[in-house]
Amino acid sequence: MDLTAYTDTVPEAGQTLLGRDFTTGFGGKGANQAVIAAHCGADVYFIGTLGRDSFGDAISVNFSAVGINTDYLERSDSPSGVAHIWVDGNGENRIIIVPGANHDIEIAKVVSAISDIPELAIVIAQCEIKQEVTIAAFVAAKARGCITILNPAPFEELSPQLLDVTDWLIPNETEFQSITHTNADDDSNLANFRPGKNSIVTLGSQGAVLIGSDRTLTRSSAPSVHVEDTTGAGDAFVGTFAYCLASGMPSIDALKFGIKVASLSVTRKGAQSSYPSQAEIKTLS
């Protein structure tokens, strides 16, 4: 669940400021990516854990409302995960995630779910759950011939074992810098990111760059829009990109379409609340 404060200027240490607005809305990186994929028209299964609390109840109901299958959604006695978000006057955000029940997910249940889901094509994960769980999930997914996508946020050091079973790594430019200790504005840094593997680095208002397994770079710009709130835009991109790949779209076309959807989302407040409907998405294609 996202707890978002909107303010013209974010406070410094020891400073108290007045905000403009506060909202509580549906969020979580995995949940956001699942919701936008469902909006695109994908058959989505959510594997995860919610707390036995009011947030968990609301999230579960929301998943069902947007058509996400919750057969593999567990509940635990830990509180549901939350994100505390500050959005400044430029629409840029700062986020602290408290995982809570996210870390209660069990490896055996995840592997069983991935083995059971019919016609599974793509498995997406983030760093909101423990890496050992994601590794097991990706190993099971690849055994079925599925594509694996990792969005390394909230950022933490990534294990070599996880990277080995990740087909597409999709960081933003800040996460890219944390992973490589280099900047994403240098083509040589990008080209040498993951030789032999595919990656995408999202660049905010500058669009994104696809790094092929052969080190080729394909840049795609973002349309110029009025930015209201960037929260959830990266998730909108990842979920849309995954849907497009699953639909058989070439990766470069999937990149461009993901940027279109993400760019529309930043013109509205919130994460899932900013996402275009299926009807709106159809007008973008």
From TrEMBL:
Q: Note whether Transferase occurs among the keywords.
A: yes
Q: Name one GO biological process term.
A: D-ribose metabolic process
One GO molecular-function entry:
ribokinase activity
Which Pfam families does the record associate with it?
PfkB
Note the InterPro entries from the entry. Answer: PfkB_dom, Ribo/fructo_kinase, Ribokinase, Ribokinase-like
Keyword Magnesium on this protein? yes
Keyword tags: ATP-binding, Carbohydrate metabolism, Kinase, Magnesium, Metal-binding, Nucleotide-binding, Potassium, Transferase
Gene3D superfamilies assigned? 3.40.1190.20
Q: Where is the Carbohydrate kinase PfkB domain?
A: 1-277
HAMAP family associated with the record: Ribokinase (MF_01987)
Q: Give the PANTHER family listed for this entry.
A: RIBOKINASE (PTHR10584:SF166), SUGAR KINASE (PTHR10584)
Name of the protein in question: Unannotated protein
Its source organism is freshwater metagenome
